[in-house]
Every structure is written in C-alpha cells, then in structure tokens.
C-alpha cells in the first residue's frame, strides 16, 4: 500500500487511525465481558508510543482478559463445540449469544519439553474433547495416534451405520468363495484379491496360510458347507467360529 501525504506527520496520523481501529475492536469485544478470547489470526496492532508492544494484547491485559492467537481452524471448531461458543468472522457481528459460557476453567500448563498447553476443563456439556498423547519418541506417538484413530473409528461407524459383520477375515473369505463358485461359469480372477486379507492375518499370527485357507474355502470346507461365520483366530492361527468368539467389526 502506498501512502501519499503532503504533511510531515501524515504517516504518524495514519498509524494513529490504525491504533484507534484496533482499540475500537478490542473495546467491542470487552463489552461482552469475556475471560478468554480465541482467534485463528494474530493479535497485533503496534502502539505509536511503544512499537514493541502489541496494542491489542496490551488492551486485553489491562482488562484482565487472556487471549489465544493463531489457533488452527480444526482446533477452533472443537473449542467452540466444547464451550458452546459460535465462531464469528467479524467483530462487528458478534452478539452476546455467541459467547461460550459452558467452560468452567481455563488454565495454562508447561510440559516437560517446555511446550505450553491451554486446557479448557470443567465444561458443562462438551461436544468435543482432546486426547493428549505422551510417549518417548515421535515414532511411538505416531503409532499410538494411528491406533487410537482406528479404534475410535469403529464405534463411530457403528453409530452412523448400525451393522456388524464377523471379523477375522470372514467377510473377505465369504466373498472369495462366492466369486470362486461364480468363476466356474465366467472367466476372471476377481476372487483372488479377497484372499489377501485372510492370508495376511494367518501369516501375521504365525499360522500355516495354505492349510488354514484351504480348510475354509476348499471343496467341502467350512465356508462352502455354509459355516460362513468361521474365521481366523489371531492368537492361535486356527479357524474358529467368530460368532461364538465374539469378534465383530463394522460392516461399513
């Protein structure tokens, strides 16, 4: 932006106008009497008197109001669900009903790695939460994160699609047997990929993949005989009835 002025104090006046606008936005927020302000952007606006002091932070500090800046949008959405707030894009559009009042306590903690975390706790009816993972290395943390996400996806899928299927590769093996029977009348190897998952399960638990898979899908095998709930036990590497064993997975 180019600023053209005929007076020597034109630049100083422009900064004063910017300062007045920042103050007006801060006072607009303070009218709602918040204890904590969270924004996805920065909290800036240098004062004309002290260039090193962020004006907005100074105004909030004098009003005894904490401010968290540069929060990710995904985290901001979760915070809004937890405290009952509404995300507002413009300060001029904020209303008292948009303020979250369901958080009982906000506290700042310093971890062993000198990282600071803000905790919003004692929420009355939170619709979102955060799971804090702790581990000795990033590799282990990433593995825990992956396993936790997979474990949480199972109940989520059951809630959205309340259908269950036997685990242990039962579904894949049943499809493979059905396609193998259909393959007698048509050309193709469509059933081959479905045998990969049961074979991998057997190999991971140290079983004999050839023997176990043959027992399930061969002529006169369990699935061919109609025992479609039989699958692979990951502990013993043998075929068991998943219905009696109690191993189910989401059908979605």
TrEMBL record:
One of the Pfam families matching this protein, by short name: Cpn60_TCP1
Keyword ATP-binding attached: yes
GO MF entry, a single one: ATP binding
InterPro entries with a match to the protein in the record: Chaperone_TCP-1, Cpn60/GroEL/TCP-1, GroEL-like_apical_dom_sf, GROEL-like_equatorial_sf, TCP-1-like_intermed_sf
ATP-binding found in the keyword field: yes
Keywords: ATP-binding, Chaperone, Nucleotide-binding
Family to which this protein belongs: Belongs to the TCP-1 chaperonin family.
Name assigned to this protein: GroEL apical domain-like protein
Origin organism lineage: Eukaryota, Fungi, Dikarya, Basidiomycota, Agaricomycotina
């Amino acid at each position: 932006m180019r600023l053209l002025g005929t007076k020597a104090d034109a630049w100083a006046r422009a900064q004063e106008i910017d300062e007045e606008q920042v103050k007006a936005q801060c006072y607009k927020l303070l009218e709602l009497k918040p204890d904590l302000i969270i924004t996805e952007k920065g909290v800036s606006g240098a004062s004309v008197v002290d260039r090193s002091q962020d004006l907005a932070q100074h105004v909030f500090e004098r009003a005894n109001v904490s401010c968290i800046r540069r929060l990710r949008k995904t985290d901001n959405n979760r915070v809004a669900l937890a405290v009952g707030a509404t995300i507002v894009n413009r300060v001029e559009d904020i209303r008292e009903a948009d303020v979250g009042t369901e958080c009982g306590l906000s506290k700042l903690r310093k971890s062993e790695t000198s990282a600071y975390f803000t905790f919003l706790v004692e929420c009355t009816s939170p619709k979102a939460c955060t799971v804090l993972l702790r581990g000795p290395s990033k590799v282990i943390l990433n593995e825990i994160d992956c396993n936790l996400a997979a474990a949480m996806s199972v109940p989520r899928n059951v809630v959205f699609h309340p259908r269950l299927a036997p685990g242990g590769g039962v579904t894949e093996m049943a499809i493979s047997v059905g396609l193998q029977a259909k393959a007698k009348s048509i050309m193709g190897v469509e059933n081959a990929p479905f045998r990969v998952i049961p074979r991998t399960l057997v190999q991971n638990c140290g079983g004999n993949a050839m023997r176990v898979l043959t027992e399930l899908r061969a002529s006169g095998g369990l699935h061919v005989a109609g025992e479609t709930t039989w699958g692979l036990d990951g502990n013993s590497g043998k075929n068991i009835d998943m219905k009696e064993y109690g191993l189910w997975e989401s059908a979605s």
